[in-house]
Amino acid sequence: MEKSASAVHSEGHGLEPDLKNEAMQATTEQAKQGSEDEHNLAPLEAIRKYPRTIFWCLVISMCVVMEGYDTNLLGNFYAYPGFAKKYGHYNAATDNYQLTAAWQAGLSNSSSVGSFFGTLLNGYLVAKFGHVRVLLGSLVTLSAFIFVVFFAPSIEVLVVGEILCGLPWGIFATTAPAYASEVLPMSLRVYLTSWTNMCFIIGQLISAGIMAGLVSNTTQWSYRIPFAIQWVWPVILIPIIWFAPDTPWHLVRQGHHDDAEKSLRTLRPKATDAEIQQALGLIIYTNNLEQQLEVGTSYWDCFKGFELRRTEIACVVFAGQVLSGLNFAYNSTYFFQQVGLNSDQTYRLNVGGNGMALFATIVSWLLVMPYVGRRTAYLWGMAAMFVVLYLIGGLNARTEDDNIGMAQAVLTLVWTFIFQLSAGQLGWALPAEIGSTRLRQKTICLARNAYAIVSIIASVLQPYFMNPTKWNLKGYTGFVWGSTSLLMFVWAYFRLPETKDRTFEEIDLLFAKRVPARLFSSYKIEAFEEDSADSKTEV
């Protein structure tokens, strides 16, 4: 029989046997009480109790605003007159300037390529330096790389600049949800991990508003001003994040228990000494439990044993954002242009789409997340998006109707609303919950890179689907992404577990016992029974 988690915790501290037993009992009891507190803490009570923790999560996640802002710029610059004139070529067939499908694909993928490598690097950097120092270094680096895109004299230089900017963006996007999951109580976990998605929306909404205001400007400043605005965020965020505490989970993994306690006191100034010790005890207990279950800390460990299942779920859930039709139906100004809408209609709809995304996120927080499980929301969101995308494809057959283009555009707004109720939120929240605590950062990084790989493929294909000089599918593209949404629905039904109302040590044991995905919500488990972790393959 393997040693219990509390026994692992007591080894190596030079305690006499009786003192060891007392220490084990104290840690287990503190962890058990800490877990009960987590289950009993309602969201509104948690908000009142831990306002400083929420503040730091909001600040750390604001780094992601920059990525949402810039990705929205590039995706919509293709139909932007000033940008197309600078970096594109005149197309006699459409009587306007167009970027070729190849350069559209290259630009769309450039920041994703940089983000891919920045994300991989982040898994190592955070483990060594912690979240806060890595974020500060990334903000400084990004400030330098923005000069490249701002002064880019050619599309080739612009691509290089976007690759360089993608490096820190990959760090921002994977650090924010990990930080939130490690400092928040369970009842607030899904809200602030998915807040990362809200920051994308905020960035997209800001860029959509700026672009709508500059669309009639035909000078170089019509696209340079939007690039220059990116310098605002580092100036604001660097002096604030300088004072942010690192996460107690990271500090415990490093063996710095005293520093972890100090971090908890900084994050939870209203907590009593007993509550601090119970929270710390739960962190130590969970970390030791995972050590007992032979959970390592390297990327390779993400693919060993039952961690492989956790990595698969995190990666597919995140990639599912793309497979649900993201590149086609979200911020789809190029699609609007191809179905006959003018520039004014296109950019007004773009602002409306981002507003719809923001509204849907708030609805999700208030009406979906408190009452509906993660699995249920993700599963039926995919089903609804499949229906909407097939409707868009079906409408394309009625080309003789002048109002069809507007109807298809409105359906993309409906798709956006459904997306943000489901995969848009949970694509961020679930990877931060699914991975073990010792592999959390690396699991999120792998999930984000699975998203990046699928996004690169989609970004290469999407211009060919839509470009009038290539396949020119227009609304028929909805059939393509509707089919991938249906495949995601089938996968989620069989593979996606329910993590709502589960603490991290409970999730560890559910995976260790190989519990089927459909039984996660109802499976009874005693996380603090001494031998509960011994049966790794029990179902």
Automatic annotation (TrEMBL):
A Pfam match: Sugar_tr
Gene3D superfamilies in UniProt: MFS general substrate transporter like domains
Annotated GO CC locations: membrane
Single GO MF annotation: carbohydrate:proton symporter activity
Subcellular location: Membrane
Membrane topology summary: Multi-pass membrane protein
Residues annotated as transmembrane: 53-69, 134-152, 158-180, 192-215, 313-331, 351-372, 379-397, 409-430, 450-466, 478-494
InterPro entries registered for this protein in UniProt: MFS_dom, MFS_sugar_transport-like, MFS_Sugar_Transporters, MFS_trans_sf, Sugar/inositol_transpt, Sugar_transporter_CS
Ranges of residues in domain Major facilitator superfamily (MFS) profile: 56-500
NCBIfam families per the UniProt record, alphabetical: SP
Family: Belongs to the major facilitator superfamily. Sugar transporter (TC 2.A.1.1) family.
PANTHER family: MAJOR FACILITATOR SUPERFAMILY (MFS) PROFILE DOMAIN-CONTAINING PROTEIN, PLASTIDIC GLUCOSE TRANSPORTER 4
Name this polypeptide is given: Major facilitator superfamily (MFS) profile domain-containing protein
